[in-house]
Amino acid sequence: MTIASFLSQRRRMVLFCAATVVLHGLAIDWAASHLAASATVNASPSVVTAQVRLTLPPRVASAPLREIAPLDAAAKPPAAKPPAKPPVVSPAFARPRAPAPVPAQAQAGAAITPVDSAASAPAIDTADLELALAPEPAAAQGSAAAPAASPDTATGAPAPATAEPVPQGGRRYKVELPPSATFDMDVARVDADGTKWTGSAVMTWHTDGSRYRASVEAGVSLLVTRLNLLVLRSEGAIDDHGIAPEKATEKRARRSETATHFNRNGGGNAAGANTISFSASDRSYPLLAGAQDKATVPFQLAGIGRADINQFGGDIDIQVGEDKEAALFRFQLVGEDELNTRMGKLVTWHLTRPPKPGTYSSRLDIWLAPGMQWYPVQIRNTEASGALTTQTVSKITTTGQ
Hints:
Blueprint: H1 3-42, H2 71-75, H3 104-107, H4 117-120, E1 181-190, E2 196-207, E3 211-222, E4 225-239, E5 242-252, E6 258-263, E7 275-278, E8 281-286, E9 292-293, H5 297-307, E10 316-322, E11 325-341, E12 344-353, E13 363-369, E14 375-382, E15 388-398
Parallel strand pairs: 9-10
Antiparallel strand pairs: 1-2, 1-15, 2-3, 3-4, 4-5, 5-6, 6-7, 7-8, 10-11, 11-12, 12-13, 13-14, 14-15
């Protein structure tokens, strides 16, 4: 073998090895690109169900919201005000009176026993003061006041005032409650003075179809620890009206725990059957159909949406028992919103309960996700002072029955 043929053979071998390496590289690149494309096609977005868009129902007008008076106030007529001292009447408005008759004993010169002049003074005729008294200012005649008493035409005395009748039932809605789940929430708070806080909350909802448990634990982060600011717990039954709370508790930082009792069958409670009573107050309220507490309101709204979205075309009125009172909350559909969360972009229906002077002074906003079982994915409370607390979902874990 000559040197030339040897070099030629070695050259062919080198070229063959180089071509083999290049072909292997191309094959690897081709396989990698096709595998990546296949993974991209087969991967399902984590929030694909959240992008469901539904047509908003047409708006339906609702009747004015009626307030619910406490049972003690509804059962008793307003307490009578003590008689006011008669104002001093100027002579221009006074009517001259006939002189009092002289007793027969005085005419005969008999001794007369002195009497208290105030006790013997003649009664004041209200007709004498009619022109001197001004009407009661309209500001003093609040909407919650009892109707003014009208005079009895026969006696001239004012007729007794009658209390406003207590409504015996709440509005009924179709309800299909969502399945059990646990919600991790991000909490952001801005105080009235601009101070900002961040924290986290855990909201749980569990039901087996006949009973339920719900809770909320919210707190703020302080360096390396977490301070619980609010703990809500609720338990009860599921009935034809949806969630039927039996007992709800509330514990705030540096405050004692309070309880709200929904006495559907009395159970020996002093407040009686079909009442709402409180550990922090002696008041009680009539228990209306569909009544809720603060922990269950978001899930009751979710159940209303799951059952029939057209129900959101009108206002949703729900009696809510909390701390020391029970008021009617009126929720209104604002519209569709897209929320940016740690779970991605969620399509939601935004409901709001505007403040109502004289009853509740805060605003409550709840965002429900139709594509995610109508779960509440954001809750915001705006206080009368301007302080704002927002809880936004970061993770949802379904827990089955």
